[in-house]
Amino acid sequence: MAMEGTSANNAYVAYFDVLGFTSRFLSGDLRNRYEKLVAAIDEREDKDITYFLFSDSIVVISKSFAKVRKTARSIYTWGILNDFWLRGGIAHGGLAPLDFSTFVSGNKVILPFLGEGYLKAYKLESTLNISGIALDGVFFEPGKECTALRKQIDYVEYEEYLPKRGYEDSKLLLLPEDGSLRQIVDTMYFEEMLKSHINDIDKYINTFIFFIETLLRTADHPTVVKFLENLLKELELHGSHVLIPSKVIIIFVAVIEGLIRRFRAGALDNIPGNPRERLETYVGNILGTLKTQGYLPTFVDYVLEYDKARHTTVYKDINRLRADWSGFH
């Protein structure tokens, strides 16, 4: 049955998939967190929002775009902070009439077809290879729902480092709740996260880089310095006894590219000392640690591959900083 509908029965729909649900839930890793999420949703009392939770799927529905966006952002932020990664999409479309009295009949639980809006959100979510929330591009047309949102504050246009085949275009992603960014980045270090996401390593890399790029673009200088110190300590600590997949070294390509962008934007100009020398120090520390841990050749390969795929100049930019880094020897 077609569900094109009229504006009267249209709604905003956020669809979420729990990443790594099957393996991690069966092992008991996700069970407690899943129960906490269910309890948190059960405590919400806004009658303008309808929720569906079934296995690894979460659906949020409302006539209000602002309420769906705020609720989805809250659930997503909670998930990232609690290693309960969610991948979602928000769309708008026809909504099937919901008669909750018909959902349970004897020994049968009948979940309804939710309509066109649900299908759009589901399809949008399926394009992602990251823990994130994709927004339908139509929301950003003149006069549409997202015109009041602030780019790089409420949302970003993000190109995944390791996209799904056929979905290489950039995505419009909601950012997490204000004030959560540093705390999120502090949950994403190697050993702990690789234990949880070793079967989804591309999603782990894309997600980590997403937050690294945001941190390097928006955070103050002391926060950036602390992040860099912690990241290199983690590599030194675990690089010798934890088998870090070589692909994870892509993260350091994103870090250096983010630092170069920060330098070019003038973010280092108000800090005591020469901005270029400070950038050279940061990049030199990263390259030195990678070399000590035996990852420098892998890093160079990934930089060259990255520049070729994305038409960037990170390799040349690093070499321009100091002549004795030529080839990163």
Helix and strand arrangement:
Layout (H helix, E strand, L loop, with lengths): L9 E9 L2 H6 L4 H13 L5 E6 L2 E6 L2 H17 L4 E9 L9 E2 L2 E2 L6 H10 L7 E3 L19 E4 L12 E4 L6 H5 L4 H8 L3 H18 L2 H18 L11 H15 L10 H18 L3 H15 L3 H8 L8
Parallel strand pairs: 4-7
Antiparallel strand pairs: 1-3, 1-4, 2-3, 5-6, 8-9
Helix pairs in contact: 7-9, 8-10, 9-10
Structural write-up:
The chain is an alpha+beta fold. It has helices spanning 21-26, 31-43, 65-81, 116-125, 181-185, 190-197, 201-218, 221-238, 250-264, 275-292, 296-310, 314-321, and strands spanning 10-18, 49-54, 57-62, 86-94, 104-105, 108-109, 133-135, 155-158, 171-174. The strands form three sheets. Strands 2-3-1-4-7 form a five-stranded mixed β-sheet, sandwiched between helices. A two-stranded antiparallel sheet has the order 5-6. It starts with 9 loop residues before the first strand and ends in an 8-residue tail after the last helix.
